[in-house]
Amino acid sequence: MLKEAITLTFYDDNNEPIKEYKSAIVPWRLLKKAVDIGNKLKDDKSISEAIDALTSFVCEFYNNQFTVDDLNSGNVDVDDMKTVLAAVLNAGGSHSPNVAAGK
After folding, report:
1. Which of helix, strand or coil describes residue 20?
2. Alpha helix (H) residue ranges in 1-103
3. Is 30:60 a contact under the CB 8 Å cutoff?
């Protein structure tokens, strides 16, 4: 279990929070997916593919309480998306400074 829940916030058009999702655990089944996405983010040729994979991954992390379309059409902070991936990698011992730093 994480010490602090990982939060993903959806915002309205005025950047006011409208819905928050939280998870305090990192499901084991997601670790390999997180590592694969982290590796794709390091490969400049796979960035677009990695972003698509990250979007699906974040939906799965929050037990599909929202869809890929919700994320793609919603107003979600990029840092929140990266934080989910970095938290899973860190919880699994696969520290990825590039993901955590947003590079």
Report:
1. strand
2. 31-42, 47-61, 68-73, 78-91, 97-100
3. yes
CA dist 68 to 4, 17, 33, 59, Å?
25, 19, 16, 7
Q: Determine the Cα–Cα distance for residues 57 and 89; give it in Å rounded to an integer.
A: 12
| Cβ–Cβ under 8 Å, residues 50 and 26 | no
**Tens-place pLDDT, residues 42-82:** 877 778 889 999 999 999 999 999 999 999 988 999 999 99
Structural tokens at position 86: 């970095």
* pTM, 2 dp: 0.83
Task: State how far the Cα of 1 lies from the Cα of 19, in Å rounded to an integer.
Answer: 23
Q: Which residues contact 7 (CB under 8 A, 6 or more apart)?
A: 20, 21, 22, 80
| CB distance 38 to 85 below 8 Å | yes
